[in-house]
Amino acid sequence: MFDPNVLLLTLDSCSYSTALRARTPNLDAVGPLELAEAAGNYTLPAHIAIFNGNLPRSPSAPIRLWRSSLARSSEPASIVFHGRTLMDHYGAAGFRVAGVGGVSFFDVHKPGNLLPSLFPTFRYFGSRREEPLGQRLENRGTQLALARSEEILEMVDHAERFFLFVNCAVTHIPYVTPGSEVTGKVVEAVKRAYIAHDHKWTPHTGGTLTPDDSAVLRDLQVAALEWADSAFGRLLQGLDRGDGLLVVVCADHGEEFGEGGRYGHGHNHPSVLQVPLWSGLLR
Predict the structure, then answer these.
(1) How far apart are alpha carbons 276 and 229 in whole angstroms?
(2) Is-contact 249 9, C-beta < 8 A?
(3) Does residue 204 have a pLDDT over 60?
(4) What is the sign of the dihedral through the CA atoms of 131, 106, 58 and 164?
(5) Are 276 and 253 in contact (CB under 8 A)?
(6) Are 229 and 26 in contact (CB under 8 A)?
(7) Could you give the CA distance from residue 220 to residue 180 in angstroms, rounded to a whole number?
(8) HSE toward the beta carbon, residue 9, CA cutoff 13 A
(9) How many Cβ atoms sit within 10 Å of the Cβ of residue 61?
(10) How many domains are there within the chain?
């Protein structure tokens, strides 16, 4: 049976509307951009679903790529697996399984975090939640997984077969990319976005982002996705394709920038549930 190597990459919080605006030549070379529906509205449930084979669903996909044998659905799937997770399935098949995290749900320093424990080998490159915003912005060049592709490649170096997962945090708030100009306007918009997200501001609770803030944040996420596309291209060049490399890139969930009166994620709104998906088998 043909079993290609696997690269599964999640663009944390990336909205489908952002992908429509961004220039993504490396992602588009994997496969066409598809509109898909996320299975969760924030990182933890969305990734639990993905790791159980429940990728964001595209209406145009006739069959699922992966399906757990424990799922209630009997939809046709390319690969039906019997372990708890995709990682268990590929590990049992002799693949080297490794993961890299970028947002706080993947922080290996937090003993209560479930997601890193699902991998035999896992590294976290993201910021610590306790870090001040200024420090987070200064350290973006070292706290983004795709900025450290050489270290990621070492995790699967010389593996006969591998399953590699990467959680890309650059499209997650604060959206700033390494080397980008961080103006006072950007800092203030990001500060207000953190407050709006953490307190779930709505028009009825007396707080909101200005239209200018929302425009700044949308533009930041577009620039972040374009940076991720370039970094993804460099990572892809370094991966051994072996007999084939299955690449799946999707957002775990999207982000609302005020379209329905709220900001961020963790609630059901089309801008949170509609996400981009690229996939393809490279040889």
Answers:
(1) 13
(2) yes
(3) no
(4) positive
(5) no
(6) yes
(7) 10
(8) 30
(9) 14
(10) 1
* Residue 54: CA count within 13 A, CB half-sphere: 18
Residue 30: which CATH number? Answer: 3.40.720.10
**Distance from C-alpha of 101 to C-alpha of 99, rounded to nearest angstrom:** 7
User: pTM, whole model, 2 decimals?
Assistant: 0.94
Higher pLDDT residue, 210 or 150? 150
Q: Is the pLDDT of residue 201 over 60?
A: no
Contact at 8 Å (CB) between 103 and 252?
no
Neighbours of 260 (CB within 10 A): 15
For residue 57, what are the domain limits? 5-282
| pLDDT tens string 6-51 | 999 999 999 999 999 999 999 999 999 999 999 999 999 999 999 9
CA dihedral 164, 58, 169, 20 (to 10 degrees): 130
SS (H, E, C) the chain: CCCCEEEEEEECCCCHHHHHHCCCHHHHHHCCCEEEECCCCCHHHHHHHHHCCCCCECCCCCCEEEEECCCCCCCCEEEEECCCCHHHHHHHCCCEEEEEECCHHHCCCCCCCCHHHHCCCEEECCCCCCCCHHHHHHCCCCCCHHHHHHHHHHHCCCCCCEEEEEEECCCCCCCCCCCCCCCHHHHHHHHHHHHHHHHCCCHHHCCCCCHHHHHHHHHHHHHHHHHHHHHHHHHHHHCCCCCCEEEEEECCCCCEECCCCCEECCCCCHHHHEEEEEEEEEC
Alpha-carbon gap, residue 176 to 185, rounded angstroms: 13
